[in-house]
Amino acid sequence: MRNFIDLHLKPSTPEQAGQMVNLAYQLGYKYVVSTQPISYSENNITVATRVDIEAKRGKELIDALKNCRRIYDIIAVKCLSKEVARQAAKDDRVDILLFSDDPAQRKYNWLDHHEAELVKGTGRAYEVDASELLATSPTHLSKMITLIKRDLSVAVRYDVPVVLSSGATTLHTMREPRALIALASLLDIDEEYAIDMISKIPEAIIKRNYTRINKEVH
Amino acid sequence: MPVRGIRRRYILFNVVGEFSPIEEAIWDTVKDSILTLYGVKGLSLIDPNLIEYNKETRNGIIRCTHDTEMFLRASLASIMNVSGVPTTFRVQRTSGTIKALRRKARI
Fold first, then answer.
1. Which of B88, B92, B93 to mutate to test the interface with A (most CBs of A within 10 A)?
2. CA-nearest residue of chain B to A187?
3. In this predicted complex, what is the ipTM?
């Protein structure tokens, strides 16, 4: 039996976070990671916290990382420039790399070969948000599919782990695990690997972080 | 010569949203979503058919060909609104026969 994990809920308030966590439980998730602390949860579901650091300069990223490691369970970096992407790829405190959801920005800043070479073997993962595939405009969607597929081909070549998350900002944009797997088929990801992307791979990241945090505490 | 019929999959879905849309709106939205993601060829391969939709319970059964179930699931997952109102389609169950689907879902 797989434990499905949604590594990226982006509620705007702690109350909304609580509602999203409850819905995640109903949808079949056993573990969720939210960018907001939750105010309540009626169900038996494990919740962790996460921060998405957005930086344009390497220095900004280093400063933000100093303050985050002990506060959040998962640290993700949204790479808005090549400099930040390289810094994030080298920094042990970073768990997840994600790139802009704006196709114009992503055209110049993506998971290129040098980036993948740095990430390879470190356990850091590249994240695909399913919300990027829920675009209302077919033109935007086709661009996003092309750009994500380009990143995925590099990730596969360099054995970089890939996680699939909902990236949901509201209850309306949340999807059940099987729906995420179906959306991954738009990126030509086979079913077995897509299942790993929302179960085994995020589980490994969380376990590794807990081990690391426990070592730091003791 | 015996000819084997086309294998089908039946999907039970639930519509979540602020209002309960009518059957025609549901059908048009599903078809539009398939056309957007897979085009006319995809629509022909999936060969979808809305078997039934209950406006009160907001549950419906949709049929597709056996090997295109994933395409239909992706199309349902990518629907964001029906007639301009934010709506989500959640797949509850799938089955190879409509009888088994009704039995499993107790409808």
1. B88
2. B74
3. 0.93
Amino acid (one-letter) located at B52? E
**pLDDT per residue over A168-204, tens digit each?**
999 999 999 999 999 999 999 999 999 999 999 999 9
Architecture of domain B22-90: 2-Layer Sandwich (3.30)
Contacts of A166 in chain B (CB under 8 A): none
What's the CATH code of the domain at A53?
3.20.20.140
List Cα–Cα distances, B16 to A30, A58, A136, A164, B36, in angstroms.
22, 43, 18, 23, 21
Could you give the C-alpha distances from B40 to A198, B35, B45, in angstroms and in order? Answer: 31, 6, 9
Q: How far is B37 from chain A (nearest CA, A)?
A: 8
A37-43 long-range contacts, CB within 8 A, separation 24+: A38/A14, A39/A14, A39/A15
- Domain limits for position A74: 4-217
| Chain A residues lying within 8 Å of B16, measured CB to CB | 172
Interface of A with B in 38-77 (CB under 8 A): none
Q: State the Cα–Cα distance between residues A187 and A181, nearest whole angstrom.
A: 10
User: Which residues of chain A does B70 touch, with a Cβ-Cβ cutoff of 8 Å?
Assistant: 182, 185, 191
Q: How many domains does chain A have?
A: 1
Task: Output the CA–CA distances (angstroms, integers) from residue A179 to A21, A89, A184, B1, B7, in the order listed.
Answer: 17, 30, 9, 40, 22
Note the pLDDT tens digit of each residue in A37-76: 886 666 789 999 999 999 889 999 999 999 887 789 999 9
Q: What residue spans define the domains of chain B?
A: 22-90
Q: What is the pTM of this model?
A: 0.93
- As given in the structure block, the two tokens for residue A188 are 């030509």
